[in-house]
């Protein structure tokens, strides 16, 4: 979908590389500028899944000659992604003003936690910090438990990378029609708060308030996970009465007067305890079979490896290529070809080729 579009990615961590991967998945020519002699970031592999389908050039962005190579690359590109703290790119001489002077149509994407200009913009932080201050973490646990969210998904990826990618796409569309570039200020704090607007719409109708455990999705016995006899888990979220009725039927509880009172908040803790005992009486496979292919809105909690082998993966959502487990691109398009996981490049693998494209070979 993005063939013919070029994106420069300045090597970073987490959300920026993820956004660039997503654009590469959709066909963009993504060139990652890796730090010359920088080595692999601790905890990351030699060839990260996040670099799949990209090309790699090694540059020292403190070296004047390499800065000129970088700016020559800017002149050939449609978009740029960087994830430094505010002001770093400017101090290197490659901030938005310098880049737009060379390429006025450039969409300059900036990924931070707190935004380019805020009370905390110069302060370090991580996923949980951003979403705790934005309000996105507030409902993320059972009543009485400390909030806990899936690692990086709500902040770095959901509120960060995906908002940066959406902003880049919007900027690229405008640049094609207007000839004008823009700067995309993507802050995880902003994006994670924006994702709360679905819950805010429910709040308008009285379904959510500020008291945890008393809301439509964070308190009921029909909206949580339960542990099974073998230590596995089942998720239950049958909000609509017609789906809740199917849940009760499958559990043999249709005639229970207390369970019939689905929205009686006073009963939620008691009914949660009763369901916990029932689910703990049988292994996960038992419950998965009972609820398989029903409208009861109940599903087992699978690990990524288990998801790879589940019948639902006939879609090819999870793939294992060269021993690396990874998820296929999303969303899907009607005219796309079958996807094969591309290799991730070695650091600097395409340096010579890219320099030749720019006419900057030194030999």
Structure notes:
The protein is an alpha/beta fold and 363 residues long. The protein has 2 domains: 6-195 and 333-357, Crotonobetainyl-coa:carnitine coa-transferase, domain 1 (Rossmann fold), CATH 3.40.50; 223-301, formyl-coa transferase, domain 3. The protein has 14 helices and 11 strands. A 6-stranded parallel beta sheet has the order 3-2-1-4-5-6, sandwiched between helices. The chain has a 3-stranded antiparallel beta sheet with strand order 7-8-9, with helices on one face. Helix 5 packs across helix 7.
What proportion strand?
A: 5-15%
CATH architectural name of the largest domain: 3-Layer(aba) Sandwich
What Rg, in angstroms, do the CA atoms define?
A: 24 Å
Largest sheet: 6 strands, parallel
Class of secondary structure makeup = alpha/beta
Uncertain runs = none
Name the shape in a single word.
elongated
On the 0 to 100 scale, the average pLDDT is 93
End-to-end Cα distance, whole Å, is 36 Å
SS elements, strand count: 11
Query: Within the CATH hierarchy, at the fold level, what is the topology of the largest domain?
Result: Rossmann fold
> N-to-C SSE series?
EHEEHEHHEHHEHHEEHHHHEHEEH
Using the coordinates above, name the CATH class of the largest domain. Answer: Alpha Beta
Number of helices: 14
- Share of helix, binned: 25-40%
Overall structural domain count: 2
Question: CATH superfamily of the largest domain, called what?
Answer: Crotonobetainyl-coa:carnitine coa-transferase, domain 1
Strand adjacency order, main sheet: 3-2-1-4-5-6
